[in-house]
């Protein structure tokens, strides 16, 4: 039994009508196999120069497939030039992100179009989000700290003196804090629950991963296609999703091991 990997030949079709699995490649090469594992990837980072062509030959066989949509992706917000001048390329460190899907601690990076970062990748969706800029301090403690200064300073100046806010937090409060930051109570409220609006996800070409691909209903437990015995599909080309941070790669590699074990057992 031999094992072959194909990295530099683009597969353009497969056929099992004569028993063996015949792979055809775009450079005219054809080859027969006893078993094949396809790991052709998801839709993220697809470009005009490198289009994803495998869905065409899978769907032409009537295999069910869900179109790819972005996952683990940044979101756009309506920043202003004045805010970006102070905050672009900088991180909101150790914040607590929340929206109707849940809450998560982490860092967010301000980009020219919006926000990137693990909490957004995990929970992002269009709509309202809230950022707790000081998740380790209660409202009461914040109010005490802000009130402790004897000098006659505005709430924002007090915050700058006693709260050790980062550049992005300061810029958010200054440029988007509105009327709230005029009073100590209002300032504390927005520090604990700063409201922002996610307008849209960045495109598939910029996503870390994608949802969509070959439907689970086409696969048996070993990840072989039910209609094509010994033809396995694994990794991001199958319709599943996971958060980034190692989980995607882990899932892909685990599926590879799972398929390989079943292939060996089958043959
Ligand atoms: C910028 C970026 C950062 C990421 N960071 C992380 C991270 O920190 N942690 C994490 O867990 N995941 C991360 N990921 C996601 C992770 O890399 C993917 O989930 C994983 O690589 C998918 O593995 P795969 O084998 O399914 O597909 P891929 O790694 O995409 O491999 C598919 C391969 O198939 C080839 N191919 C496609 N069509 C054909 C064809 N017709 N014939 C022959 N070959 C073909 C492609 O050229 C490609 O080489 C990141 C992804 C990106 C883009």
What does this structure look like?
This protein has 267 residues and is α+β, with helices and mostly antiparallel strands. The chain folds into 2 domains: 11-66 and 208-266, FAD/NAD(P)-binding domain, CATH 3.50.50; 75-201, no CATH class. Helices cover 28% and strands 28% of the residues. Strand 1 (11-15) and strand 2 (21-25) form a beta hairpin. Helix 2 runs antiparallel to helix 6 (167-176) and helix 4 packs across helix 7. The protein binds flavin-adenine dinucleotide. Flavin-adenine dinucleotide is lined by residues 6, 10-11, 39-41, 44-45, 53-54, 208-209, 235-237, 244-249, 252.
Can you count the helices?
8
Q: What share of the residues does DSSP label as strand, in percent?
A: 25-35%
The main pleated sheet reads as:
7 strands, antiparallel
How many β-strand runs? 15
Provide the list of bound ligands, each named once.
flavin-adenine dinucleotide
Q: What would the keywords be for this entry?
A:
FAD/NAD(P)-binding domain; seven-stranded antiparallel sheet; 28% strand; three-stranded antiparallel sheet; 267 residues; 2 domains; alpha+beta; binds flavin-adenine dinucleotide
Layout of helices and strands:
Layout lengths: L10 E5 L5 E5 L4 E4 L2 E3 L15 H6 L5 E7 L3 E2 L4 H7 L3 E9 L2 E9 L3 E3 L1 H6 L3 E6 L6 H9 L7 H8 L4 H10 L7 H9 L1 E5 L1 E2 L7 E6 L9 E2 L2 E6 L13 H20 L1
Parallel strand pairs: 4-15
Antiparallel strand pairs: 1-2, 2-3, 5-13, 6-9, 6-12, 7-8, 7-10, 8-9, 10-11, 14-15
Helix pairs in contact: 2-6, 4-7
Bound molecules: flavin-adenine dinucleotide.
